Automatic annotation (TrEMBL):
Residue span(s) of domain ATP synthase A/B type C-terminal: 357-456
Family: Belongs to the ATPase alpha/beta chains family.
Span of domain ATPase F1/V1/A1 complex alpha/beta subunit N-terminal: 9-73
GO biological-process terms attached to the record: proton motive force-driven plasma membrane ATP synthesis
Family matches, as Pfam families: ATP-synt_ab, ATP-synt_ab_N, ATP-synt_VA_C
Function: Produces ATP from ADP in the presence of a proton gradient across the membrane. The V-type beta chain is a regulatory subunit.
Record's keyword terms, sorted: ATP synthesis, Hydrogen ion transport, Hydrolase, Ion transport, Transport
Official protein name in the record: V-type ATP synthase beta chain
Organism this protein belongs to: bacterium (Candidatus Gribaldobacteria) CG23_combo_of_CG06-09_8_20_14_all_37_87_8
InterPro entries: ATP-synt_VA_C (IPR055190), ATPase_a/bsu_AS (IPR020003), ATPase_F1/V1/A1_a/bsu_N (IPR004100), ATPase_F1/V1/A1_a/bsu_nucl-bd (IPR000194), P-loop_NTPase (IPR027417), V-ATPase_su_B/beta (IPR022879)
Amino acid sequence: MQKIYKTIKEASGPLVVVENTEGIKYEELVEFELQDGSIKRGRVLEAQEHKAIVQVFEDIRGMNLRDSKAKFLGKTMTLGVSLDMLGRIFDGAGKPKDKGPEIIAEKYLDINGAPLNPYCREYPNDFIQTGISTIDGLNTLVRGQKLPIFSGAGLPHSALAAQIARQAKVLGEEKGGQKFAVVFAAMGITFEESEFFISEFKKANSLQNSVLFVNLANDPVIERITLPRLALTTAEFLAFEKGLHVLVILTDMTNYAEALREVSAARKEVPGRRGYPGYLYTDLSTLYERAGRIKGKEGSITQIPILTMPEDDITHPIPDLSGYITEGQIILSRDLHNKGFAPPVDVLPSLSRLKDKGIGEGKTREDHSGVLNQLFAFYARGREVRELALILGESALNEVDRAYLKFTDEFENKFVNQGNETNRSIIETLGLGWELISLLPKSEMKRLKEEHIARYLKA
């Protein structure tokens, strides 16, 4: 039964307090009828015995509290989902943003999802090719994994996100078989960034297999909190009910966390680290843990959250907590970006904790593990030699150290700096890896099997 109240007593930021309420439930949807007859929607953020705190989705400036009414709808927020969502663009409230028709929903799903029984989860173990050597070759993305990208202000994470969305695919896919879909959720971005993402998807003709959710910086802050949940609900429908392999890209999670902090401050909650709410970890986990595979289901959800580290500080609460929940991180380097490298992935601190599960014979190639470990070892040693050369001068280096220095320069110029338009297959990436390995003597190749050296190393 819908209840209507005229007891709106207080408004603060996006929050409205309704008093003398009865039987109100957490997350229940609310409609506010303003004095001019317009309708604004919200949801119950806190339900006390005789008071409800409501989070309003739209701007409430000019709202006359005395003449407005609050109607509690007795249901939670749902999203109408359908295969027709592919190729469409929506806003943070789930409404079409591309001037297309409304979606005719096959069903309505709660945007908060349902927690998965860990016993029903299937371990991620299938390789996803992004076409980017620093990811495919060294920090492999696995189907069902959550692998964030840690960036900084001004770094080209938008270009990297668009490149991954255009190029990502599951190997072994046959024409007419299961499709690969992308759900792209952008929070608090500028109009220019929005136009860039849309043009990138259209340019590669990948929009038809994608669903875009866009919240601009001047859109209501509450949409930034609901938007990733709308995107993940769409992904769950496509993956677990339609059998698609879905890649979810969430950018920028820092804007999402800032929205949480703004709402928390409006609620006068006791702040945690750097003013963020104490439940930030729990809230982020409700998003990140919606990635994975389910036993008996064909589809899967792989997640790439992107966040900008304030002042490039990896110990900041947002990257720090994200690192605890997710399975590794891809880190972008400001130094490499300043040198003009694209994408500027810093290989050494980057990590994919599940990379060993998605590589090897039958998945990529039998020599992948050895090439990966050898490139890491050579590059780490080469960086040390480069620092030594700055202090002592290159003339003080021996012949092997000079080979390491040459390897490091070639590795960065050829392997890392592949450009935002180059789509390399895993075979091309491994071939380039062997080409770089050949710059050093065989006596240094301690992480490769003899049979792999004999088969793949060019004389």
